[in-house]
Amino acid sequence: MAKSLAYFTGLLLSIMVTFNGLLSGVTNTYFSNVVYHSIGLIFFGIIVFTMREKLPHIKLKPIHFIPGVLGSLTIILNNIVIGAIGVTLMTAFTLVGQVLTSLAIDHWGLLGKKVTKPTPKQWLGVAVMIVGLTIMVL
């Protein structure tokens, strides 16, 4: 189930990035980012409003806002890159970057995560991804 949901997430991300790149092309990178995040705010605002009794009361710290900043930066960079190399190469580079960063986080236990040493199969998967990306670029 989790692997199917992960695949579906990748599918949604590719579609989202494509549409956001289209919006950026007819407006600009920053305006499309505002539209994208405003729609998300409205969507999740409705969800939070309908579930308000189930939500825990927490005290937010500045570190809790980092994902929002990184998400906005990711969208801005995607919009800039899509115009130069297209959705396919942008997605391929992004995936390789995500996998390598995730392996580093697991390997060294960064960001408070438990240390998990990468397996030879994982390294082989990364090598295949890098070879595939190299072939795509050539």
Summarize the structure.
With 138 residues, the chain is mostly helical.
Task: Characterize the structure shown.
The chain is mainly alpha-helical and 138 residues long. It has four helices and no strands. Helix 1 packs across helix 3 (66-108). The termini are far apart. The mean pLDDT is 90.
Topology, element by element:
Layout: H1 2-26, H2 29-50, H3 66-108, H4 120-137
Helix pairs in contact: 1-2, 1-3, 2-3, 3-4
Radius of gyration: 18 Å
SS-based class = mainly alpha
Shape: globular
Main sheet properties: none
Discrete helix count: 4
Strand runs, count:
0
- Kindly estimate the percentage of residues that lie in beta strands according to DSSP: under 5%
Task: Record keyword descriptors for this entry.
138 residues; 0% strand
